[in-house]
Amino acid sequence: MKKKVALGIDIGGTNTALGLVDSSGRFVYEETFATCAHESFALFRSRLSEKIHALCERFAGDYVLTGIGAAAPTGNYYRGTIESPSNFKWGNVEFVSLMQEHYDLPIVITNDANAAALGEMRYGEARSMHNFMVVTLGTGVGSGIVVNGDLVYGHDGLAGELGHTIVEPQGRQCACGRRGCLEAYASARGICRTVFELLSMHTDDSEFRYISFNALSAEMIYQFALRGDHLALAAFEYTGRILGRALADAAAYFSPQAIIIFGGLAQAGNFLLDPVRRHFDENLLNVYKGKVQILPSQKNKGNLAVLGASVLVQKELEKMGKLAAQ
Amino acid sequence: MKKKVALGIDIGGTNTALGLVDSSGRFVYEETFATCAHESFALFRSRLSEKIHALCERFAGDYVLTGIGAAAPTGNYYRGTIESPSNFKWGNVEFVSLMQEHYDLPIVITNDANAAALGEMRYGEARSMHNFMVVTLGTGVGSGIVVNGDLVYGHDGLAGELGHTIVEPQGRQCACGRRGCLEAYASARGICRTVFELLSMHTDDSEFRYISFNALSAEMIYQFALRGDHLALAAFEYTGRILGRALADAAAYFSPQAIIIFGGLAQAGNFLLDPVRRHFDENLLNVYKGKVQILPSQKNKGNLAVLGASVLVQKELEKMGKLAAQ
Fold this sequence. Notes:
Chain A is 39% helix and 21% strand. Chain A is α/β, with parallel strands linked by helices.
């Protein structure tokens, strides 16, 4: 008898990862190709379809494909759309209905933070948890929130915009057009802005004084911190203070069992996690103290979103099964 | 055949309301008595039991009691407890297990904001909604949050502490021991504090200059606003600015269809709602604009929490029915 696999797709601004994942979370196959987000979606779709077609031919002997799950920035579960993500030249894309022209299978999409949460819930740190959050720290700041064992999509599929809660009224300009959003502080770009704020405020000597804004990256800040640069350490402390306080607010809304930190900036490990945990505890309402863990994700990026996208397919099939049984 | 009714109880700091509610939300009977929260819980329980006993005798001919639902500050659904609410001398109370010594019926408890949300969902403004929030503005600021049609309890039953999200870092002292919580601004006491801040900042003449802090009430501020007092109007504007921004953050987490405003301070109507709506819109992330309604509750306090407590019983019975069917 053929084994069932779901196809998980993680569509990123730079690369797209594909994986055939069985029902125990094992990767039967995985592959990565360039998204070329500056080209049209039509071109992307034809490349993606070729890949899927090749996969289906190659694995048809041993496996049966149960569905396709995708994770993409602004991916909307309810509408099946990708909605003009920044860094993409795609505009609004009817992802699910366009893909369904080719495949008579359940096809579902959600955003990357939600997929990460599904991946953590079924195969990662959040196994056995019913109330938790995944916070993604990368180019942007996102969150996938699970309540009563289900993702929080909200009324229109756009819930979980932790990165656009306001942490500093009248604070830094944000790409969204407003001011003081968490994303302007706790993203990869945000910590670079913090370094420049610290350079303006203090007189300490630092390697950063030789680097232009556009030449600076979060990775460099991590490298400088490893070498003991005071400003780099202060930048992580500053970021941890803002993020820790924001997560204490999130805990007041959701009372989660854990908050799992994931994404590029999270690679800085304890440089970031130590101040996040300290300021989280300081700002946490008494009734939650000692009850909410701040955990680093144990998964790497591509893997987790693809896994999560495959879980989205499994959940969709379970839902269809339940409806059919009614 | 006897008609089914649930007993809803709203335990407030001053009064406790009881209601026998049928499955269509009709009150068969209602009554209010003094809580006497400064006495022991044992005394309260014996008075409550007498009332319930009398009700059961009186209505036994025509009705059958399906369960008891209670709403109380800090009421914890998971643990069945009331957990040392401020203004009560009760400490931690095992409400459900103590009541079950007398009644062989499903007995459930939740906090008052959650009960209000259940009441709105089944009989009020939120009929047909699956994602919305009820915000209670009274002595404290609370919230009952519904996601995917279910209340958000969180991991330990203590979710929804909107009043203790931090809106002004290093801002006003809050009763919880921290600083800058929404409750220090948007509660009945919070708006009194705002009047005193405005008196300190401005030189306008105002009736408020003849009133001591402890003599001032939110009701007086409303009465002064009706008479056109500039400081009273400015106090509502200030409150609306803080609350509107906080609700914009809440919308970023939950993407709700509506936020329903309820409780004592909400009685000020458009004095409060106009600035709340304006600042909510100004602070709302673009993707949510025009999608989230800010609505005043159409229910009065006692009624809504009792109704909601009766809904809690209905939901419990539905859940038990589903479990039994599995």
